[in-house]
Design a protein that fits this description.
By secondary structure, the chain is α/β, with parallel strands linked by helices. Helix content is 46%, strand content 15%. Helix 5 links the parallel strand 1 and strand 2.
């Protein structure tokens, strides 16, 4: 599939959104290796098609930080997202003056939060023009444009773009799962880090409990892929081994979803307003309920029909509904985690 098509003024490309769902079989049980290879070969089209259609929906239904987080009882949704970002920055020991790369920065929510928390200089990398426009606009509005900057680039070609030994630290929050291989993207991160530099990641992986020989397990992985613009879901051991293979020394690793939290990370996706932690969060949780999704997706259908959003946005929204159900199921069964935390270091010599 080609990205050639109508380039919109906001940076999106029309046919990328319309073609997104065509990367998967309508019946996910019929997925085979040829489809998987096609998605890996065209990962930029898969990811950009998804985010061209999903970014508006993410910002409406979630926030400007496109990731999950742990919850304390009574903790507000946005406070939890910020704490998750602070936790990564503190585990990495980010400090004022450090030059830090955010790999797959979305619209810049985590970059802005971590910059304010750590006083580091953040460079956000993204291959999606639509999200980059949003990121720069929001950052300027907050007066952080001299501390947080954004560049377009491919995370599989970091050394080519930045040169080797360019950053004191690199982090990725639920982003490198979009890469065609962990070894490829982690290897590029290793190259651009200075000797002794630190890499922190929250990775999306299937847990050790996941068994692709079990049809329901395999289908769950494909549902997560389809609903989140991911070429291929991989097991946790694959991420761990990839880090070691490219030369990182792992200092700390933990699946944070395994902690015995009273409030599960996936609770906002369940759509049960009885579980909302604060009054404002009732609205956030409602948007994920059956009635909230009904209102949202019918509104998108109408907006698409009159040209207020690009064609294909509704179909991507339908994929998001598949994603929500699959992520909840993956969390409940412990087959999937969005918060495999690893802090690794590039050797000094």
């Amino acid at each position: 599939m080609s990205s050639s098509g109508v380039a919109l003024s906001d940076g999106r490309v029309q046919n990328r959104i319309e073609n997104y769902n065509a990367f998967w079989q309508k019946d996910l049980n019929k997925e085979d290796e040829s489809g998987n290879k096609n998605r890996l070969d065209q990962y930029t089209e898969v990811v950009n098609g998804y985010y061209d259609g999903a970014t508006d929906l993410y910002e409406y239904g979630w926030s400007q930080s496109f990731h999950f987080s742990r919850f304390y009882k009574g903790e507000a949704f946005l406070a939890s997202l910020a704490r998750h970002e602070h936790y990564l920055a503190s585990q990495m020991v980010l400090r004022p003056g450090m030059r830090v790369l955010d790999v797959g920065c979305g619209v810049g929510g985590p970059a802005r939060e971590i910059a304010q928390f750590s006083d580091a200089q953040i460079v956000g990398l993204n291959n999606n023009d639509f999200q980059l426009q949003r990121a720069r606009k929001y950052t300027k509005k907050m007066g952080l444009e001299n501390q947080v900057t954004f560049v377009k680039g491919d995370f599989m070609k970091l050394a080519e773009q930045f040169g080797e030994n360019s950053f004191d630290a690199v982090y990725a929050i639920e982003a490198t799962v979009h890469a065609p291989s962990f070894e490829g993207v982690y290897g590029e991160i290793f190259k651009v880090l200075k000797p002794g530099g630190v890499f922190g990641v929250y990775e999306w992986v299937m847990t050790d409990t996941w068994d692709p020989s079990i049809p329901r397990h395999k289908e769950l992985a494909h549902q997560i892929e389809l609903g989140n613009g991911i070429p291929e879901m991989r097991p946790i051991r694959s991420a761990r081994q990839a880090l070691k293979t490219v030369g990182f020394e792992i200092e700390h690793e933990e699946d944070l979803a395994d902690r015995p939290d009273p409030i599960p990370w996936y609770y906002p996706l369940e759509g049960d307003i009885r579980k909302a932690q604060t009054w404002w969060d009732y609205f956030t949780v409602w948007r994920m309920s059956w009635s909230g999704k009904l209102v949202t997706h019918n509104a998108i259908r109408v907006m698409e029909a009159v040209g207020l959003v690009p064609k294909g946005t509704h179909d991507v929204g339908e994929s998001l509904k598949v994603a929500g159900d699959a992520l909840v199921a993956g969390g409940q069964t412990k087959l999937f985690t969005p918060m495999y935390l690893v802090v690794s270091r590039k050797p000094k010599n």
